[in-house]
Design brief:
This protein is 20% helix and 38% strand. It has helices spanning 3-19, 54-64, 134-141, 165-170, and strands at 22-29, 32-33, 45-46, 77-83, 86-95, 100-104, 107-111, 114-123, 126-131, 145-146, 153-154, 161-164, 177-181, 189-193, 200-208.
Length: 215
């Protein structure tokens, strides 16, 4: 066998092996979930994203597996899928970053002005997380997760689904939704900057089935 043919065969073999890899999928759901936009959050209106950035997935992973707090990157979550019913606007009171000072006699008074913005909330979000081992999936299933704010809690109340990597990426009936694939290629775009490393984050959106729930 020629060198080039052997290399192609080897690459094809490993692609097949990876597609057959077992995934253990944990499903989380809740009434609301806020996905923080990476653009300015102090606009008059902010809308939720249809995708999760690498730093959000990393934060969820560190919440589920606190032993990974000292390491940077995503280690256990091998894939995810996000779907929801609709985006509903809710009012939220915010404060400015700076302080205003006024002088009253010999004293100075400091205050932070407030404002009201409309923030997009995902209604009935469903998030599926894929793990390589059943042990990791079981540990994750016993916990709740937060989508950027502690009051937006998602719980897992269903059985763990065992599937293959190929099925997780292709099965529209079981795993519909949006997934930002953390790769930098011709389809990728800038999705923000990592809060810890300050490095730019890139990805491209995989859409499986119908991400907007209609039932």
């Amino acid at each position: 066998m020629e060198r080039g043919s052997w290399k192609q065969y080897r690459n094809r073999f490993w692609r097949i092996k990876l597609s057959e890899m077992d995934y253990y999928v944990v499903k989380y759901s809740g009434p609301f979930g806020f996905i923080k936009p990476w653009t300015a959050v102090r606009d008059s209106e902010t809308f939720s994203q249809q995708f999760l950035t690498p730093s959000i997935i990393e934060g969820i992973e560190k919440k589920l597996f606190p032993e990974l707090l000292s390491s940077t990157g995503i280690h256990k979550i091998k894939g995810h899928r996000l779907s929801y019913d609709q985006v509903t606007n809710q009012q939220e009171v915010i404060q400015t970053r700076g302080w205003n000072s006024t002088r009253k006699g010999s004293q100075f008074l400091f205050e932070r002005p407030t404002a009201v913005i409309l923030r997009g909330i995902l209604h009935n979000p469903i998030l599926k997380l894929a793990f390589e081992t059943l042990e990791d999936a079981r540990k994750a299933q016993m916990q709740h997760i937060c989508l950027c704010r502690n009051e937006d809690i998602l719980l897992s109340n269903e059985e763990i689904i065992q599937t293959s990597k190929h099925e997780f990426e292709q099965n529209e009936a079981l795993f519909s939704g949006y997934e930002l694939v953390f790769e930098k290629n011709d389809q990728a775009f800038l999705v923000g900057y990592h809060r810890v490393t300050q490095e730019p984050m890139f990805g491209w959106i995989r859409v499986v089935g119908q991400p907007i729930n209609t039932y």
